[in-house]
Amino acid sequence: MASSKTLTHVFLISFPAQGHVNPLLRLGKILASKGNLLVTFSTTNSAGRKMKKAGAAVSGDPTPVGNCGGMIRFEFFNDGYSDDSDKEIHDYEAYFSMLETYGKKSLITILNRLKDQDSRPVSCVINNPFVPWVSDLAEELNIPSALLWVQSCACFSSCYHYANSSVPFPNGEQPDIDVHLPNMPVLKSDEIPTFLHPSTQYPSVGKIIVQQFKNLSKTTCVLIETYEELEDELINYVSDQVCPILPVGPLFKSPLLEVETAANITGDMIKADDCMGWLDSKGTSSVVYIAFGSHVILNQEQFTEMASGVLNSGMSFLWVMRSRLPEEFLEAACGRGMVVDWSPQPQVLSHKAVSCFVTHCGWNSTLEALSTGVPVVAFPQYGDQVTNAKYLVDEWKIGIRMCRGGEAEKKVVGRKEVEECLREATCCVKAAKMKDNALKWKKASEAAVAEGGISNRNLQKFVDEIRGL
Ligand code: UDP
Predict the structure, then answer these.
(1) From the CA of 362, how far away is ligand 1's center (Å)?
(2) Where does CATH 3.40.50.2000 sit in the chain?
(3) By the 8 A CB rule, do 409 and 429 touch?
(4) Please, what's the largest Cα pairwise distance for the chain?
(5) pLDDT tens by residue, 10-62
(6) DSSP H helical segments within 281-334, as ranges?
(7) In 10 A of CB 280, how many CB atoms?
(8) Which of 138, 189, 416, 423 could crosslink 125 through cysteines, CB 3.0-4.6 Å?
(9) What dihedral do alpha carbons 224, 227, 230, 236 form, nearest 10°?
(10) What is the torsion angle, in degrees rounded to the nearest 10, for the CA atoms of residue 443, residue 444, residue 450 and residue 456?
């Protein structure tokens, strides 16, 4: 086996959120496996601590991945939070600024150390959104950099046009105007990523996204976690008119991850509960899977309505919920339900017992549903979730809308509506049509990542570019 010292070294830098870590780490494992590369995965110390606590093998020593001699290792950096603090982030503006100041300094020290060891100088840095300053840092150190965009191509294009003011977006004077973007359906003002709307409570998130687009010219390559069939015309348009992009998704479906030797190298920041045995005991297409990603939390009233709707539907359910559950809820479910802190979501969605997915429509969850062929009940809340919901329901036609979402929408979805949505998504003519569509997207995703598929070829092209650097 080759020594890690002779392998081309790629350094991945992730914003410390679950939805950012998952796709970048998947990319890292595929690159190591496919390209026979040494990959270092880096995120903040506190995210690293959570990953270790959840049982992930995140060693600083190179660990073999795949069958071709590639390796992966981990190195965590300081984001200015005191080392023993694992606080949730509430003030994004302050956090982004601290992350840039401390993260940049810490990463420069790490990258210089790797260079000085001359055994592992870094040939390429890859970052995901919300750490746009990585392109500046790479430029300063004279290292080529690439971006893995972890949302849809539709969101990429929306953010690009917003950042460049090339089409009118809702603004202070006209907050409700529709947005007309090339090769996209017309988006209503509550269907654009909420951080781009003037009423957003998180303008700093909008600003950090814009900064990434201002830095686009500094990146040598933009990889997107989507696949050609899903967004074909738009991908072609963006590649021709905006900047070359390479769709490489859905990364979690890559056959290279199946043969990967180090299975417990995961990015989970919460240990997944074992629910696969419980699913095995359930009939085909009999379970509703309910999960809202790593951030969304239901308020008490919405929780009560959602839980009542689920109970009244009479269906079995697997619900990911990190808050404490009233005892009477599970008693009333009479063994029909299982509640977990965290699930192995891609495996759950691939299980034949799952009939539909009640989701907040985060991009990872959206892509995981599409490529496992599972229809969804869309419950978007903020950010790109509202745009993903629009596509799931109106464009890809695998979803029922439970709400419109958006930061301004304070509406609580009632129990009757919840129950009706579950029925509509699982047992009527429309449900059968949605399932057919979902299976079509699943098949296309498998073709994209298979040997000879477009995402697979794009990854190979990228690996060849890295080797040529
Ligand atoms: N996830 C998981 N188990 C859970 C809930 C979520 O493994 O119980 C994973 C899910 O598969 C996805 C990620 O966490 O890869 C959540 O990302 P997403 O973009 O859907 O939502 P976010 O957390 O960014 O809002």
Answers:
(1) 7
(2) 4-267+448-468, 276-427
(3) no
(4) 64
(5) 999 999 999 999 999 999 999 999 878 999 999 999 999 999 999 998 999 99
(6) 300-313, 327-333
(7) 10
(8) 138
(9) 70
(10) -160
Q: Using CB atoms within 10 A of its CB, is residue 88 exposed (0-12), middle (13-18) or buried (19+)?
A: exposed
Ligand 1: distance of its center to the CA of 47 in Å?
15
Q: Which of 20, 364, 371, 374 to mutate to test the pocket of ligand 1 (most atoms within 8 A of CB)?
A: 364
- Atom in ligand 1 nearest the alpha carbon of residue 344: 7
Q: How far apart are CA 11 and CA 23, in angstroms?
A: 15
Which residue's CA lies nearest to atom 24 of ligand 1?
19
Fold entry, domain 276-427: Rossmann fold (3.40.50)
Q: Is the pLDDT of residue 118 over 70?
A: no
Q: Domain 4-267+448-468 belongs to what topology?
A: Rossmann fold (3.40.50)
**Length of the chain, please?**
469
Q: Judge whether 20 counts as a catalytic residue.
A: yes
Q: Which of 20, 161, 197, 351 is catalytic?
A: 20
**pTM higher than 0.90:** yes
